[in-house]
Amino acid sequence: MLPRFHMLPINVVVFHGSDRET
After folding, report:
1. 1-15 pLDDT, tens digit each
2. What angle do CA 10, 13, 19 make, to 5 degrees?
3. Residue 22 and residue 20: Cα distance in Å, rounded?
4. What is the chain written as a DSSP string?
5. How many CA atoms lie within 13 A of 2 on its CB side?
Protein backbone atom coordinates (compact mmCIF):
# COMPACT_ATOMS: atom_id res chain seq x y z
CA MET A 1 0.00 0.00 0.00
CA LEU A 2 2.92 2.34 0.71
CA PRO A 3 4.59 1.99 -2.72
CA ARG A 4 1.24 2.25 -4.48
CA PHE A 5 0.37 5.52 -2.74
CA HIS A 6 3.80 6.93 -3.56
CA MET A 7 3.48 6.05 -7.24
CA LEU A 8 -0.02 7.54 -7.39
CA PRO A 9 1.08 11.22 -7.26
CA ILE A 10 3.96 10.53 -9.65
CA ASN A 11 1.68 8.96 -12.26
CA VAL A 12 -0.79 11.83 -11.98
CA VAL A 13 1.95 14.41 -12.54
CA VAL A 14 3.39 12.53 -15.53
CA PHE A 15 -0.03 11.98 -17.10
CA HIS A 16 -1.03 15.60 -16.56
CA GLY A 17 2.26 16.89 -17.97
CA SER A 18 1.99 14.70 -21.09
CA ASP A 19 -1.59 15.86 -21.69
CA ARG A 20 -0.57 19.50 -21.32
CA GLU A 21 2.36 19.13 -23.73
CA THR A 22 0.20 17.49 -26.39
Report:
1. 566 665 666 667 666
2. 140
3. 6
4. -HHHHHHHHHHHHHHHHHHHH-
5. 0
